[in-house]
Write a structure and sequence with these properties.
CATH superfamily of the domain at 5-119 and 210-226: Thiolase/Chalcone synthase
CATH class of the domain at 5-119 and 210-226: Alpha Beta
Order of helices and strands: EHEHHEHEHHHHHEEEHEHEHHHHEE
CATH architecture of the domain at 5-119 and 210-226: 3-Layer(aba) Sandwich
Strand order of the largest sheet: 3-2-4-7-1-8-11-10-9
Distance between the termini: 18 Å
Number of strands: 11
Length: 382
């Protein structure tokens, strides 16, 4: 079967815009379709898959059909998927399989969210539903759930408040090079440690922001027909774990990510040592240390050493979240996974300006929902 490749992208700024769904997805769809190097007839797009987490954010049902307005091909199939914060990567996973198994030739994936039309309290009441029903019933929010995981990780392995703060510092520094990012403000470790406690040890400056934004990618089973520089999906793995922190065998580990990574590495025929750059799901920055370990970049309980040694910095041997991550780039949940793919697509093509990492051959995306109930790991290469 033919290889599946990404051939074009669209991406908005992330921030607080007060735009409607059509105002936010229309331009990224048009950018994606118009950016195909060798041109594309809309009739050649067989599917449109939209990722968005909740209709309360968008105030809009039928977002798949709405996307067809901008594709201008009413014969394509269109639908929406949802898997909390992993929605965008789930959409890309379905697109990959549709092409791989002959259901479609070309698939447009569009992720979006218009979160800021709701208040922070209203948004929190929506986002809490990504956890377990039992935790929801007791008012355990996402930061509270991650706080329990982070505190246990610190107690067991010795990660410090400075280590957790340094993730935020790194990702804000990276976002300074990203014009799409919501925040262009450097932080110090002291800035993070002095910010408001949300759920100890999680502070405000550990938390990704509520944001609006959209991103799109076009996947093709004939990638070289549309561009001379496609980016290939070499491996993709999806895995699950329990919904609640209280149910986890080990709350200091993102088990679903470890399983998903194993599948993706096996499909790609590589191991973690071959990865040149990674975008990972730092919705609450202490979890980034656990993700390093789940992906095989560090041994259990040793993830913080990659920070201390500079390995995961922009200038390090394995840069992580060069985009600024969810923490500083922003986290419009339905767009997040797709936006991560756009970042790596452009890194692999060497076209990303001052945040370009040299000699990128293998790029990884890790995107999980809730506290790791659903995880997708994708391996991309030139």
């Amino acid at each position: 079967m033919n290889e599946v490749g990404i051939v074009s992208f669209g991406h908005s700024n992330y921030g607080a815009f007060g735009k409607t769904v059509q105002e936010i997805i229309g331009p990224v769809i048009e950018q994606c379709l118009g950016g195909v190097d060798n041109g594309l007839d809309p009739k050649d797009v067989d599917q449109v898959i939209v990722s968005a987490v909740d209709n309360q954010f968008s105030n809009q049902h039928q977002t798949g059909a709405l996307a067809l307005r901008f594709l201008k091909n009413p014969e394509a199939e269109a639908f929406r998927v949802e898997a909390a914060c992993a929605s965008g990567s789930v959409a890309a996973n379905i697109a990959y399989k549709s092409i791989k198994f002959g259901i479609a030739r070309n698939v447009l994936v569009v992720g979006f969210e218009t979160m800021t039309r709701l208040s922070t309290r209203e948004s929190t009441s929506v986002l809490i539903r990504g956890g377990s029903p039992e935790e929801n019933m007791h008012g355990i929010t996402q930061p509270a759930a991650y706080a329990m995981m982070s505190q246990l990780y610190s107690d067991r392995y010795g990660a410090t408040e400075d280590d957790y703060a340094l993730v935020s510092v790194k990702n804000h520094e990276n976002a300074m090079r990203n014009p799409w990012a919501m925040f262009h403000k450097k932080l110090t470790v002291d800035d993070v440690k002095k910010s408001k406690v949300v759920a100890s040890p999680i502070r405000l400056m550990h938390c990704s922001p509520i944001a609006d934004g959209a991103a799109a990618i076009l996947l093709s089973g004939e990638p070289r027909k549309y561009t001379d520089t496609p980016v290939y999906v070499k491996g993709i793995g999806m895995a699950h774990d329990v919904l609640g922190v209280f149910e986890k065998d080990d709350p200091t580990s993102i088990k679903a990510t470890k399983k998903a990574a194993s599948k993706a590495y096996r499909m790609a025929g590589i191991d973690a040592s071959k990865v040149d750059i990674a975008e990972v799901h730092d919705a609450f920055t202490p979890v980034e240390l656990m993700i390093y370990e789940a992906l095989g970049f560090a041994e259990r309980g040793q993830g913080f050493k990659l920070l201390r040694e500079g390995t995961v910095m922009h200038s390090g041997s394995l840069p992580v979240n060069v985009s600024g991550g969810l923490k500083a780039k922003g986290h419009p949940v339905g767009a997040t996974g797709v936006g991560m793919m756009v970042e790596q697509f452009r890194q692999l093509r060497g076209e990303i300006g001052e945040r370009q990492v040299p000699d990128v051959e293998i790029a990884l995306v890790e995107n999980h929902g809730g506290t790791g109930a659903t995880s997708i790991v994708t391996i991309l290469s030139r």
